[in-house]
Automatic annotation (TrEMBL):
Transmembrane segments: none annotated. Gene3D superfamilies: 3.30.70.20. It comes from freshwater metagenome. Residues 195-280, 330-404 form the Cysteine-rich domain. Keywords: 4Fe-4S, Iron, Iron-sulfur, Metal-binding, Repeat. GO terms for molecular function: 4 iron, 4 sulfur cluster binding; metal ion binding; oxidoreductase activity. The keyword Metal-binding applies. Residues 24-83 form the 4Fe-4S ferredoxin-type domain. This is Unannotated protein. SUPFAM superfamilies: alpha-helical ferredoxin.
Length: 437
């Protein structure tokens, strides 16, 4: 049995070794039970172990072990709350990273089904899918926006593995990078920072208006913006599905491009939390080079960077908000922002406008692509419903959230139209939305 989270360790993908480590950790988790409320992995695990009089986690079958793995959607909340993590305890327990190791082992050893691998191939190639979908947006969006459970959506599910009952974000007719290249250039007189925007697939292809408002808010505050040239999808769909070779290919390419950007004197700004987490944490773990660490040290969430400027020496934000400021905002805190351990920077940013912020900390159960896979529908939808209930209970005038997929789940469950915090701030400044293209 080897306790390791290093993907380059010779035992990392060894099935027998991984299963022994799963037994060790499952036994510890069963004895603790602190994380019973975060996802169905833990109740499932506890129920399996409790079937045996001696409550021995070693009696679980490989199929039962794998079911626990499959129900983990990498929210990272158990790690945040665990008292036995490597930095704090000799047991060195990191449940999310062990689940990633188990998924990688199963992928490497052919233990994942053909159907699952096909869905990963379809959903993982976000740049290819995004380029095609934006070029054919009118047709693509008719398919994407077909009613939940309709024949069209069922056909898509059969071919791609994407759930026929989940609301899907539509594709934009104009990509964010196209808008950025064509926009009038703004001369910044008092520069307070230089950043390269890593737009993420969601902003590049599906929600470019987040990028529009990010750039305008940044430039209003003297922050010069460019694009992270040569970088593409962060690779999270492949990482979270266990396809390490594909993830490594993507990660190596992005690390090189982003490190070159940092050496030109720019920080990296990411408007989506899952992608920010991958750049800050996973590239360090899986690429492990000095360049990966350089990228991590210079990567910021979009609101995090603005608050850094606001509280910096000799720098500050414009805190005059002549535009539309809601009285109350229901703000959904994404799990992958919590996992970055940076505090609630989006809340702090929106509070500068004078709005009252009501926090909603229920997980959306999305984790990038996990919640959109057909095989996870029965687990993911009830989690989204809990989030919808919390949003309704908060009752804010508007709803905000950093994660666009979580926002889509909120829209699915409540009919609300959540906004990214940078969009809230843009409207508060009086910056109008870009005309729809």
């Amino acid at each position: 049995m080897t306790t390791t989270y290093d993907p380059k360790h010779p035992k990392y993908l060894d099935e027998a070794d991984v299963r022994e480590e799963l037994t060790r950790v499952y036994d510890l988790c069963h004895g603790c039970r602190l994380c019973f409320k975060f996802c169905t992995s833990f109740p499932t695990l506890f129920e399996f172990v409790d079937r045996h009089e001696d409550q021995d986690a070693g009696r679980l079958t490989p199929a039962q072990q794998d079911q626990v793995v499959d129900e983990c959607f990498q929210c990272k909340l158990c790690y945040i709350n665990c008292p036995y993590i490597p930095e704090l305890h000799e047991w060195a327990l990191d449940f999310p990273r062990l689940m990633l190791r188990a998924d990688a082992m199963r992928h490497e050893n052919g233990l994942k089904g053909t159907r699952s691998n096909l869905t990963t191939e379809v959903m993982g190639r976000t740049d290819l899918l995004g380029k095609v979908a934006t070029a054919t947006a009118p047709v693509t969006n008719k398919i994407v926006s077909a009613p939940s459970g309709s024949l069209v959506r069922k056909a898509v599910e059969k071919v791609t593995g994407v759930s026929s009952v989940r609301l899907l974000p539509p594709y934009a007719k104009q990509r964010f990078s196209t808008w950025f290249a064509r926009r009038p250039k703004l001369r910044i007189n008092r520069r307070q920072g230089r950043v390269a925007v890593f737009p993420t697939c969601l902003v590049e292809y599906q929600k470019p208006e987040i990028g529009h408002d990010l750039v305008k808010v940044y430039e209003r505050n003297g922050i010069e913006c460019s694009l992270a040239e040569g970088a593409g999808c962060c690779g999270a769909p492949f990482l979270h599905s266990g396809d390490l070779p594909q993830f490594d290919k993507i990660a190596q390419k992005n690390v090189k491009a982003l490190a070159d950007t940092v050496r030109k004197g720019m920080d990296i700004v990411v408007p989506q939390p899952t992608c920010g987490y991958v750049l800050k944490k996973d590239y360090v773990d899986y690429v492990g080079t000095d360049d990966a660490r350089l990228v991590a040290e210079h990567t910021y969430d979009a609101a995090e960077y603005l608050m850094k400027v606001h509280k910096g020496e000799g720098t500050s934000l414009d805190v005059e908000f002549p535009g539309d400021v809601p009285e109350t905002i229901s703000y959904h805190v994404p799990c992958h922002l919590k996992a970055q351990n940076i505090g609630l920077k989006s809340r702090d940013l929106m509070k500068l406008t004078g709005a009252k912020i009501k926090l909603v900390q229920q997980c959306s159960g999305i984790d990038g692509m996990w919640g959109l896979r057909a095989e996870n529908t029965d687990i993911s939808v009830p989690i989204a419903k809990k989030l919808g209930d919390e949003i309704r209970r908060a009752g804010g005038d508007v709803v905000a959230g950093d994660c666009n997929l979580a926002n889509t789940a909120i829209a699915e469950q409540t009919g609300e139209d959540p906004q990214h915090p940078l969009q809230i701030v843009a409207r508060a400044y009086g910056i109008p939305p870009e005309p729809t293209r």
